[in-house]
Amino acid sequence: MDYFNHKGNVALALVTLALVLTGLWLIIFVAPLIPEQEWAQRIFYYHVPLAWNAFLGYMGVLAFSIAYLVTRKPKWDIYALSAAETGTVFCLLILITGPIWAKPIWGEAWTWEPRLTTTLILFLVYVGYFMIREFGGPYERSSRYAAVLGILAAVDIPLIYFAVDFWAPQVQSHPQRDMSAHSSTVLKIFLFSLFTFTLILINMYKYRVHVATLELKNLEETHV
Amino acid sequence: MTLIHLVKKELYHEIRAKESIISMVVFGTSVILLFSFAFNATPAEFARFLPGLMWMTFLFISILGLLRSFSAEKEMDAYAALLSSPVDRGSIYLGKLFAFWIFLLFAQLFILPLFMLFLNLDISAYPLMFVGLVMVTDWAIAAVGIMISGMGLRTRMGEVLVPVLMFPLMSPVLIAATKVTHTIVSGQNLSGTNFWMMILFTFAVVFSATGYLTFGAISEE
């Protein structure tokens, strides 16, 4: 069945599109400029929600991977794969938007700032996750391997973060730690953007689950 | 008891085949030689990079050893026999982990003197702390490495997948081990190393436990 034949999916996509456009208008025309950072700061209305989405995606991978290893039901594997893919798309976008902000503010596109470094390491771990899915052999086996790797990666996240944070303490910390210090308009638009991006994640995730389910069905039919 | 038998099996195999340790030692020696040529630095200049270079070398040789750690199972199809024996899968993991930890320590017994001789590694300020650091870090490397190489055993491109999967996962271990080694080499106060040792211990314990619990899923047919 086509994904967009379902009215609920169409409605969700349209609402999300409307919110994205509204958010764009709010960020460009309504959000006040923050002294010293000027226009560069506006990328944070996207950058932070991207990180939130990647986090949600990867926490989903952990939960669904455990569920798959315990129950061995293919639906959990599909959920884990979809969460990993959507999470990694947002992870890549963090790595792109971070340097775009850093270049005018810090004067260089890449610093070994803890969160950015942790994101890069996570991105590499999940590239490995997709490689094991690709080269892991038969579907059931590669799913099992991927589930184990998904758990290993999630367990590693706090260790990577703490290690990297203490590794280079002289590097400046992220500015969103003091986001609450800005005006309430900034905070409201930020929360609006966070909500919009969560909806984008839900759209992407649902669509990926739909495609992965069709792929699995196709695979099963060719093997019967 | 089962665990002791499994470790003995690995050790007997290595003593007879001499695959892992010799290749690890020879490769480690070559890397040290290449570092000397590539950097051509004074001992004072080297002191800054030495901890990082040393742990990079150990990570490289561990990859080489790990790729051989399931070689008998792969080439002689002994894996099916091992899995069909009445042994719990977690114990197979612990047996492999313990044996590889011994191999790695043994290879380092030969490589570390070369670091001291060629690259002026000086651990005289805290020799016991250094031994403890090597033991914990090696355990952490082995805990992740055995799981990853267990996956690489039956995948296409296993030789590529093992380092690709392992290096990013090992980054906290590399950072922590390098920081502690730097403190030892420079003879500074060890109180600053507590946090890093905690990271290493946590990593070693958490990944050993995860490996024990999930190795069944890796070793299924």
Strand count, sense and barrel status of the largest sheet of chain A are:
none
Radius of gyration of chain B: 18 Å
Q: Rg of chain A from C-alpha positions?
A: 19 Å
Task: Profile the largest sheet of chain B.
Answer: none
Number of helical elements of chain A: 6
Shape of chain B from CA axes?
Answer: globular
The string of secondary-structure elements of chain A, in order, is HHHHHH
N-C termini distance of chain A: 21 Å
Q: How many helices of chain B does DSSP assign?
A: 9
Helix fraction of chain B? over 70%
- Helix-residue proportion of chain A: over 70%
Structural class of chain B: mainly alpha
Task: Give a short overview.
The complex is a heterodimer of chains A (224) and B (221). Chain A is mostly helical. Chain A is built from 6 helices and no strands.
Write a structural description.
The complex is a heterodimer of chains A (224) and B (221). Chain A is mostly helical and 224 residues long. Chain A has helices at residues 7-30, 44-71, 74-106, 114-135, 139-167, 184-223. Chain B has helices at 2-17, 20-39, 43-69, 71-75, 78-84, 89-119, 127-152, 158-186, 194-219. The chains are: A mainly alpha (224), B mainly alpha (221). The A-B interface holds A 69, 121-122, 124-125, 127-128, 131-132, 135-137, 141-142, 144-145, 147-149, 151-153, 155-156, 159-160, 162-164, 166-167 and B 144, 147, 151, 154-157, 161, 164-165, 167-169, 171-172, 175-176, 179, 195-196, 199, 202-203, 206-207, 210, 214, 217-218, 220.
